[in-house]
What does this fold into?
Amino acid sequence: MILMKDIIDENHPNIRKVAQPVEFPLSEEDQVLVEDLQEFLLNSQDEELAEKYGLRPGVGIAAPQVNQLKQIFALHVTEYDEKTDEFEPILSEVMINPKIVSHSVQQAALRNGEGCLSVNRDVPGLVPRHQIITIEYLDAQGNSHRKRLRGYEAIVVQHEYDHLLGKLFYDHIDPVDPWGEPEGIRLI
It folds into this structure.
């Protein structure tokens, strides 16, 4: 089980290193990593478990954040369903050896900025990202997938994808005008 103490912070040298592709079939170690990443996200979004284990809530986590320089990240993005009065998953999966193969020119950003499990401080500013992306990746069984994502889901995937490249969200913030809105950007 991944706990907050297992997540390396922005000062750890490996957070800035490029992750390596994963071989298939997955080794037992990589299969456990996949399961642990998924479990962390589910636990971090469960109020009781998050409080019990002191977890910060997350919608994505990448292997480099737990000091594994492998091209793997997990996602668990939900939205509130008024009919069921529950949060339903809209993007809940693991992406292995992902590649963003196309993206829109139009940019989008979260209105209040981004945060990160590996950054234990507030870093104010807009993080411009592509509004729409197409990503190709493998699942844990080695099956190929291609998804076109937009808006919030595209932003979350780009945030996690950056971890595989040794980048952090604040690398995208304009140091001169952190809250400056690039022309035509869509705020979410």
